[in-house]
Design goal:
Blueprint lengths: L1 E2 L2 E2 L1 E6 L2 E6 L15 H9 L16 H8 L1 H19 L16 H14 L3 H19 L8 H12 L3 H9 L6 H16 L2
Antiparallel strand pairs: 1-2, 3-4
Helix pairs in contact: 5-8, 6-7, 7-8
């Protein structure tokens, strides 16, 4: 028995019986057995035979075999993609991570490291400005009208407060930046001396 799609039923003699091969067994399901002549066909095939053996798909290929047989092109594409991804991610980006230790560093070490970094990148003015901003915040807390004072009055008050000369206070308070480490340290020391006097 055949149709335009191909053979549907084949029958071969085998010893004292027959071997019948069907392309599908769905027509013998409970839902379809009453349709057309499915029940009559089943009875004709089985009938009053002394013995009947049913074998469903004797050699079912494994998933890997089926994929390699029918989907080998997508598999090769997937393998090539995985190989490219592994190669791409195998390159290290950036420096190696330093192994974490349980030892906790002191805050002063972090501050020194940050200061050295800014110094190496020419940010002396930034460091001085940070010290001056902290000192200004303390001065404003003590004298709320500090910002309204004229710069000459500010220098005069800081001179009286710290005991430094007017030139020393003016240099520490108004110097834009320090050109060398010695000048920088001198200015910071004078600002700290003013800070201690508050």
């Amino acid at each position: 028995m055949a149709d335009p799609q191909g053979n549907r039923l084949l029958q071969y003699p085998w010893g004292q019986g027959r071997v019948t091969v069907l392309s599908e067994l769905d027509l013998f399901d409970n839902d379809r057995l009453a349709e057309y002549d499915h029940a009559e066909l089943l009875w004709t095939l089985l009938g009053d035979r002394p013995a009947v053996w049913l074998q469903y798909r004797p050699r079912v290929p494994s998933l890997a075999q089926w994929l390699w047989t029918y989907a080998w092109m997508p598999l090769i594409g997937l393998l090539l993609t995985l190989a490219a991804a592994v190669r791409t991610y195998s390159y290290r980006l950036g420096p190696l991570l330093v192994t974490w230790t349980q030892e906790r560093r002191r805050l002063l070490e972090h501050l020194r490291a940050g200061g050295r970094f800014l110094w190496r990148h020419g940010a002396q003015a930034t460091l001085l400005e940070a010290v001056r901003q902290r000192l200004t915040a303390r001065l404003e807390y003590q004298w709320p009208h500090w910002r309204q004072l004229h710069p000459a009055e500010q220098i005069q008050r800081l001179t009286e407060l710290s005991g430094l000369s007017r030139e020393q206070v003016a240099g520490a308070w108004q110097m834009a930046d320090a050109l060398n480490p010695h000048e920088f340290l001198l200015v910071v020391q004078r600002l700290q001396q003013i800070d201690k006097c508050l």
